[in-house]
TrEMBL record:
KW Ribonucleoprotein (keyword) present: no
Localization per record: Cell membrane
Principal location: membrane
Name under which the protein is recorded: Sugar ABC transporter permease
Family: Belongs to the binding-protein-dependent transport system permease family.
Length: 306
């Protein structure tokens, strides 16, 4: 009689297995929603950055099929270029003056709009006028100010002069800095106005009872309450202003005689005017490093604030 061998039945699924599957699905579900965005960021940000960093250590890239590894030669070439040094100095002047002016003007207008001495109608009118520059794009701002500052423009007509504001080597850098100040202060004004409206009135009342005058209340009550906002706005504006390109390119193009050349326009000209993509990549990497330093301090401040 042939013996029949019966295979053992598979072990029954324990209650823990479905529970583990559900737990895995719940933990993986957010990554599924984020996957398209992460893939897009990887394609449009990570890969280009890696390629540019690689190009900065090579020569004969993009247009040549035989790129050569040159190490840090490109960095030496760029860092010793007189135009790069001029662009760096112009960028520092343009950025620092713009950020300081944005802060001072924005805070002044914010305190004006927050003052109880102005009625509701006047406050609404002033708010609309002050925020107007923020509504324009860089292209509109550049065209508008080129028309106003033309030799036969409104500004020269009012001043009864014929100054070449954007073509004069002595005035061009100050002029584009003024235009950037005019275009950027509303961001500070709106943010600081929101901060001023959040300052408890009891603090000012207590300071008044203690005998503090208006300046003392401003310096010892208002500024400490606004300090986190001021630091955040300043760091963000430093990053944005140091990378300003559209306004400079559409007003002066970096001229005349490189007096308004910025790091952004310098990098653009290396790539698309001289077709030296390796040097342009090197300049872009240097700008990236500077921006990452500012971004590090911004993130550090935000963490400390939280």
């Amino acid at each position: 009689m042939q013996e029949v061998i019966v295979a053992p039945a598979p072990p029954a699924a324990t209650p823990q297995q479905p529970r583990k599957r559900r737990s895995f699905r719940r933990s993986a579900e957010p990554f599924g929603f984020l996957a398209p965005t992460l893939a897009l960021m990887f394609v449009l940000m990570i890969i280009p950055v890696v390629l540019v960093v690689g190009y900065s250590f090579m020569d004969n890239v993009i247009l040549n099929k035989n790129p050569q590894l040159v190490g840090i030669d490109n960095f030496v070439t760029v860092l010793t270029d007189s135009v790069f040094l001029t662009a760096t100095g112009n960028t520092l002047f343009f950025t620092i003056v713009s950020v300081v002016a944005h802060l001072v003007i924005g805070l002044g207008f914010a305190m004006l709009l927050n003052s109880p001495l102005i009625g509701n109608v006047a406050r609404a009118i002033f708010r609309a006028l002050y925020i107007l520059p923020w509504l324009f794009t860089a292209a509109v701002i550049a065209v508008l100010w080129r028309m106003l500052l033309a030799p036969n423009g409104v500004v020269n007509f009012l001043l009864n002069t014929d100054v070449e504001w954007l073509a004069s080597p002595a005035l061009a850098l100050g002029t584009v800095t003024f235009i950037n100040i005019w275009a950027g202060y509303p961001f500070f004004m709106v943010s600081l106005l929101a901060g001023l409206q959040g300052v408890p009135a009891q603090l000012h009342e207590a300071a008044t009872v203690d005998g503090a005058n208006g300046w003392q209340r401003f310096w010892n009550v208002t500024i400490p309450q606004l300090r986190p906002i001021i630091i955040s706005l300043t760091l963000l504006d430093l990053i944005w202003t140091s990378q300003q390109f559209a306004l400079i390119w559409m007003t002066t193009g970096g001229g005349p005689v490189n007096v308004t050349e910025m790091l952004s326009t310098y990098t653009y000209k290396l790539a698309f005017s001289r077709y030296e993509f390796a040097l342009a990549s090197t300049s872009a990497v240097l700008v990236l490093v500077m921006s990452m330093v500012l971004a590090f301090f911004y993130v550090r401040h935000q963490r400390a604030r939280d």
